[in-house]
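Sequence only, no structure available. Ideas?
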Amino acid sequence: MDTETAILNAAFGILESQGPSALTTRAVCEAAGIKAPTLYHHFGDKDGLEQAMIRRGLADFMRRKQQPPSSSELLVQLRSGWDVALEFALKRPALFSLLWHHARSQPSLVADAHALMHARVQRLVDTGRFKVTVDTAALAVWAASQGLLSLVLQGNSRKDIEVISELLFNAVVDKLSDSQSPKKS
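Reply:
I predicted one. Tokens follow.
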């Protein structure tokens, strides 16, 4: 294993076992068995290390999100993406928290995930399933999913989050499918 991978693995170990607040350069150096100049050589600083961790986590997330859904049904495909995002947040809450923190100031971090969701929503609008503009539908789906994911950050139970997930997804889909929905954002 190369040094950069060893440092990242040590950082992920700390993040997942102790949370984002424990992710210090000193702790990572100790866990990886290196000196600070080695970490700085590979990542520049703590922010560079966090960015590398986020890129690695997002790459894994996007691989799962881009896997072909088990169905050609467009709503199943949209729900699949929704569920992948939720499962990622539930299984890796510390990494998700780190990503959430950085995405607020760097929305480009989640641009690929947003684009994939937008494309799935576009097909639902194009087929007439969603009765609103694609921008309205995409904003509604994104806002609902982000609200759901914030429940993970708040420490709500998995059971409660799964119940709310079902409720929110169905409510948004029902409203977007309603011919009485507003047509503009």
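The chain has a mean pLDDT of 92.
Hope that gets you unstuck.
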